[in-house]
């Protein structure tokens, strides 16, 4: 398994990063869990034998696929040699591009053609034509993203401000803190945030804190005990509560296993 970040961004903050991942015969069958990272994505799947298992539902993956926000970990299986390339997007980017209620994509991976046929027709050729030329792919897909018309109304600007505040504080805030910097009631914030991001602000905040802790754990920068303290969990039991919310297995099971893909994609997000 070979995972690479392709370090390039656009001028409007739509792209968080680009990435590629490849699997050889030696990797197969490949099975892992994927920890949600709070970023939607667009991914091109260049094989037929990849699936996602979430809430006991199997979703086959192929072609240009949109990934919405996931509220907890899912299982990812690869059974054929493959190459995927994708774009991790800013949390508000899907809404700006697709201009639909993004909560309809929560916990789902959906072919782009089923959501926006026109965007699919314009975007799909970049992935096919530059499959063997990553440098040209990056240049051309970024130029295409720069050309897109985006929705950027007052609500989006306020939610962008909320995301920046959550990120700056590494998820160590609560919803009441957001209400202090935004002109919304709590009910209005919940509604607008879920429509634009896909999940509620409370869930996004908890996810942000948890994933930042887990990424630092995978980087071995601090011990788990020190990380629990650093990220303002009152004690180990409060951390376990979030762990059970986002993960499909016990901490004991997770920490004794190796997940090379998680380590790879956790480094530079």
Automatic annotation (TrEMBL):
Superkingdom of this protein's organism: Bacteria
PROSITE patterns cross-referenced by the UniProt entry: HTH_ARAC_FAMILY_2 (PS01124)
Tell me which InterPro entries the record gives: DUF6597 (IPR046532), HTH_AraC (IPR018060)
One Gene Ontology MF term: sequence-specific DNA binding
> What are the HTH araC/xylS-type domain coordinates in residue numbering?
160-257
Q: What is this protein called?
A: HTH araC/xylS-type domain-containing protein
* Organism for this UniProt entry: Polaribacter butkevichii
**Source organism phylogeny:** Bacteria, Pseudomonadati, Bacteroidota, Flavobacteriia, Flavobacteriales
């Amino acid at each position: 398994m070979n995972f690479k970040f392709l370090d390039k961004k656009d001028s409007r903050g739509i792209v968080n990063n680009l990435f590629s991942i490849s699997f050889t015969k030696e990797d197969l069958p490949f099975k892992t869990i994927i920890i949600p990272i709070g970023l939607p994505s667009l991914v091109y799947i260049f094989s037929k034998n990849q699936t996602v298992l979430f809430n006991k539902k199997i979703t086959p993956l192929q072609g240009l696929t949109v990934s919405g926000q996931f509220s907890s970990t899912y299982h990812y299986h690869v059974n054929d040699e493959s190459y995927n390339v994708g774009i991790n997007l800013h949390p508000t980017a899907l809404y700006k591009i697709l201009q639909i209620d993004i909560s309809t994509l929560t916990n789902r991976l959906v072919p782009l053609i089923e959501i926006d046929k026109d965007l699919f027709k314009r975007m799909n050729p970049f992935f096919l034509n530059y499959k063997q030329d990553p440098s040209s792919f990056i240049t051309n897909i970024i130029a295409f993203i720069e050309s897109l018309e985006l929705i950027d109304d007052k609500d989006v600007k306020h939610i962008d401000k909320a995301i920046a505040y959550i990120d700056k504080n590494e998820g160590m805030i609560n919803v009441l803190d957001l209400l202090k910097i935004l002109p919304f009631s709590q009910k209005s914030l919940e509604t607008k945030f879920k429509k634009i991001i896909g999940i509620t602000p409370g869930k996004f905040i908890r996810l942000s804190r948890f994933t930042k802790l887990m990424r630092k754990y995978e980087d071995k920068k601090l011990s788990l005990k020190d990380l629990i303290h650093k990220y303002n969990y009152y004690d180990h039991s409060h951390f376990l509560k979030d762990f059970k919310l986002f993960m499909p297995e016990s901490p004991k099971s997770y920490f004794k296993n190796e997940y090379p893909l998680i380590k790879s994609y956790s480094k530079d997000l």
